[in-house]
Amino acid sequence: MEARVKRRALLLLVLCIWMPMEVLGGTRNSTVSSSSPSSLFSRPRVVNIGALFTVNSVIGSSIMPAILAAVDDVNDDSTVLSGTRLNVVMQDTNCSGFIGTVDALQLMEKEVVAAVGPQSSGIAHVICHVVNELRVPLLSFATDPTLSSLQYPYFLRTVTNDYFQMYAIADLVDYYGWKEVIAIFVDDDNGRNGISVLGDALAKKRAKISYKAALTPGASRSEIDDLLASVNLMEARVYIVHVNPDTGLSFFSKAKNLGMMSSGYVWIATDWLPSVLDSSDIVNADTMDLIQGVVALRHHTPDSNQKKTFASRWKIFKGVKTSNFNSYALYAYDTVWLVARALDLFFNDGGNVTFSDDPSLLGTNGSTLNLSSLRVFDQGHKLLEILTALNFTGLTGQIQFDSQKNLIHSAYDVLNIGGTGLRTIGYWSNYSGLSVITPEVLYTMPANTSTSNQHLYNAIWPGETIKRPRGWVFPNNGKPLRIAVPFRVTFEEFVNKDKGPSGVKGYCIDVFEAAIGLLAYPVPHVYILYGDGKRNPSFNNIVYDVAQNKYDAVVGDISITTNRTRIVDFTQPYMESGLVVVTPVKEIKSSPWAFLRPFTFQMWCVTGAFFLFVGFVVWILEHRLNPEFRGPPRQQLVTVFWFSFSTMFFAHRENTLSTLGRLVLIFWLFVVLIINSSYTASLTSILTVQQLSSGIEGIDSLISRSDPIGVQDGSFAYNYLIEELRVSESRLRIIKSEDEYVSFLQKGPQGGGVAAVVDELPYVELFLSNNNCIFRTVGQEFTKSGWGFAFQRDSPLAVDLSTAILQLSENGELQRIHDKWLSNNGCSSQNNQVDDTRLSLKSFWGLYVICGVACAIALIVFFCRVYCQFLRYAPETEEPEISEPESARSSRRSLRSRSFKDLIEVFDKRETELKEILKRKNSDNKKQISHSSDVQPSSPA
């Protein structure tokens, strides 16, 4: 009984102490032991959350009313935080990093369980260290991509990461085919880090930021003027503007004054511009006139009933300063509800809100900063886990976080400003890239980010044009294009030094000038000779220097090779090229046995065999009918040979009488006609052709030998033979002049020269025409390439000049320039090899097959006919002297067997004689049958 009284007294004491603390504590969080005897005290009656942002800013003016409205809605909803009220403690950072940091520390003194904000990435970087120490989850609107959950585990971004926005811009740039952009940004954490990600994203699309134009935070108008004037002198005309919402429109005002909002310019703004326009009460016509044709990105939020209800209530919210709001208001509203739902789960799971002193701050008690008042949220890690695991649908769509604590669905509206409003020309999402279909629909389909699946509606660009801007120009006051030109020593027709104004001349220069003249814009350029004029320069070195930005381009006889395309961009080839083998030739007198050369040995054998075969077939078919094919065996054998070979000259005297024989002869004479004509043509070619003196038939036979090989100085053929064809470097001889070209080939390997020269086809054609065709190319081109003009990687000039070169080819100008500088001697492309004129069996086997089939059919028909006659034929025998009974004779006759000798006898008989025998036998058989029917056998006695 006494113990029960003591327990009641203790409980009354706890209640008396707790109630005043609750009243006096105001907004301070209260804790209750989990061993409380009543569920009424399992939750605190008030829980504090912090809000940190700049109130008087474009984003802050939308955030504050949304946060207050969300807190009221949470407190009015009995299904969330039942028995606990949510209290928000606001701090105004006043657009100052220092004040924002101080405000953040003051906010932490209020023992908040979570902090919403800040919008500034610079302040967020500092506060992240504070919340990490005090274990307070920070739900921020800062979009800086470098705010990583790995470095700041208590940082949770509740708005779309700028990482995705920069990749959306890179996809836009790639979609329209631009390769260079100029980034204009505020030089703070958010600006620098966002543009850094943009550079990485563009690099994956083979594009780049040609210049980063940084503005100091709070830049003056004169600074903006100077920056815009400097970027206007550059070639790129695609500007990415990533600045603060509070200063952005003044930026476009300066651009308008400088004429940079006209045709040919491209302006892409990040989400700051729609934030300004969406939250403005009224956007006047003058303001819209400043930004006509601008493309901008806005956070995508689905059109839901929740969003429409929120918009209809906006004007009645507390703290509303404008009649409209931007997307940050929606994210702020969802953020408060995210905290409320997490706290509800936290309390339902038995969680308590308790704070403890930070041991690392105990030594600061003597400081006037009073840092010891900052306390650690003991259950902060548990609340953070609940926050990151939540999944619900809010005003901005699905609220769920990935492993990096970013919202899983990152999407933007692609807007185009025209007239007096914003027009949506498409959407971008990290799920499917650019599309005209809303992301919510795409989420139900398989992901597809292929290039062919990227689509946008037509945009209206500055200058009120729908034609896609080229994205770059040569400014009038810009530097001229630095063009390297090889200072050649050999084959100066292609490119050479000149005393004229340009300093160079030649076929390649004329082609380049003609292509430049077709462009729709001027291209100031200056030619710079590359080399000392004593020997050809290394073409690989020229291309490498272009890649290293020592020159802007190289114009000349530059072959397009795989290794070179890895470091520079080439235009469309303006001349076909490829490596060929050049060897000397000489006249060779005809051989006494030259008549055998037209046919290969196999062809001669098969042709001779067919002559004999056809003669034998005709003999078989004619032997029974034609007296010219009869006689003694020796005479018949001679007839077969004579008839066979006389058909070659169509001079056979023997007539063919059988139908089958004539059929076979028709096919055979057609074959003989073709063979005779082909033989005559081949023999004529062989007797008049120049034959190779070296015996080299192409690159394969050249490599298999050990003779020296000539290579023109500076040509890529030197490295190609060594690296690709594995030719020993000791076999290669550098040819430095056209005289050496001739002398090396004429001397040959035994005289200190070369067996052949490997060079590019255009040089070889010019060389052969200049030397009266005393040399020849052998084999086929063993590489296929062309000559093109080389530019630095991703230079837009390479694309435009490729189109111009195609136009030159179509209108015939390219051929006219070729005829002006280069000769068209036909010997350059001849490949006179004797073996090429020899005829092989593969050219005639079809004829032989047809003739053989005709012979086989004729023989089959003939032998079938002979066999039928053989079955009807029986050799005549003498009548026996002693008559035998008829039955005995019949029995003996049936027992007589027909032998092979009888078959040969039938085959050898004349056709007329055999027919008479068969006719007589038929009549005798009829008489016997009639006589036997008249005589009846006698009856027995």
TrEMBL record:
<keyword id="KW-0325">Glycoprotein</keyword>
<keyword id="KW-0732">Signal</keyword>
<feature type="signal peptide">
    <location>
        <begin position="1"/>
        <end position="25"/>
    </location>
</feature>
<protein>
    <recommendedName>
        <fullName>Glutamate receptor</fullName>
    </recommendedName>
</protein>
<dbReference type="InterPro" id="IPR017103">
    <property type="entry name" value="Iontropic_Glu_rcpt_pln"/>
</dbReference>
<dbReference type="GO" id="GO:0007165">
    <property type="term" value="P:signal transduction"/>
</dbReference>
<dbReference type="GO" id="GO:0009611">
    <property type="term" value="P:response to wounding"/>
</dbReference>
<feature type="transmembrane region" description="Helical">
    <location>
        <begin position="599"/>
        <end position="621"/>
    </location>
</feature>
<dbReference type="InterPro" id="IPR028082">
    <property type="entry name" value="Peripla_BP_I"/>
</dbReference>
<feature type="disulfide bond">
    <location>
        <begin position="773"/>
        <end position="827"/>
    </location>
</feature>
<dbReference type="InterPro" id="IPR015683">
    <property type="entry name" value="Ionotropic_Glu_rcpt"/>
</dbReference>
<comment type="similarity">
    <text>Belongs to the glutamate-gated ion channel (TC 1.A.10.1) family.</text>
</comment>
<dbReference type="Pfam" id="PF01094">
    <property type="entry name" value="ANF_receptor"/>
</dbReference>
<feature type="region of interest" description="Disordered">
    <location>
        <begin position="919"/>
        <end position="941"/>
    </location>
</feature>
<comment type="function">
    <text>Glutamate-gated receptor that probably acts as non-selective cation channel.</text>
</comment>
<keyword id="KW-0472">Membrane</keyword>
<keyword id="KW-0813">Transport</keyword>
<keyword id="KW-0407">Ion channel</keyword>
<feature type="transmembrane region" description="Helical">
    <location>
        <begin position="663"/>
        <end position="681"/>
    </location>
</feature>
<keyword id="KW-1015">Disulfide bond</keyword>
<dbReference type="GO" id="GO:0015276">
    <property type="term" value="F:ligand-gated monoatomic ion channel activity"/>
</dbReference>
<dbReference type="InterPro" id="IPR044440">
    <property type="entry name" value="GABAb_receptor_plant_PBP1"/>
</dbReference>
<dbReference type="InterPro" id="IPR001828">
    <property type="entry name" value="ANF_lig-bd_rcpt"/>
</dbReference>
<dbReference type="GO" id="GO:1901701">
    <property type="term" value="P:cellular response to oxygen-containing compound"/>
</dbReference>
<feature type="domain" description="Ionotropic glutamate receptor C-terminal">
    <location>
        <begin position="482"/>
        <end position="824"/>
    </location>
</feature>
<keyword id="KW-1133">Transmembrane helix</keyword>
<keyword id="KW-1071">Ligand-gated ion channel</keyword>
<feature type="transmembrane region" description="Helical">
    <location>
        <begin position="845"/>
        <end position="868"/>
    </location>
</feature>
<dbReference type="InterPro" id="IPR001320">
    <property type="entry name" value="Iontro_rcpt_C"/>
</dbReference>
<dbReference type="Pfam" id="PF10613">
    <property type="entry name" value="Lig_chan-Glu_bd"/>
</dbReference>
<dbReference type="GO" id="GO:0016020">
    <property type="term" value="C:membrane"/>
</dbReference>
<feature type="compositionally biased region" description="Polar residues">
    <location>
        <begin position="930"/>
        <end position="941"/>
    </location>
</feature>
<dbReference type="InterPro" id="IPR019594">
    <property type="entry name" value="Glu/Gly-bd"/>
</dbReference>
<keyword id="KW-0406">Ion transport</keyword>
<keyword id="KW-0675">Receptor</keyword>
<keyword id="KW-0812">Transmembrane</keyword>
<dbReference type="Pfam" id="PF00060">
    <property type="entry name" value="Lig_chan"/>
</dbReference>
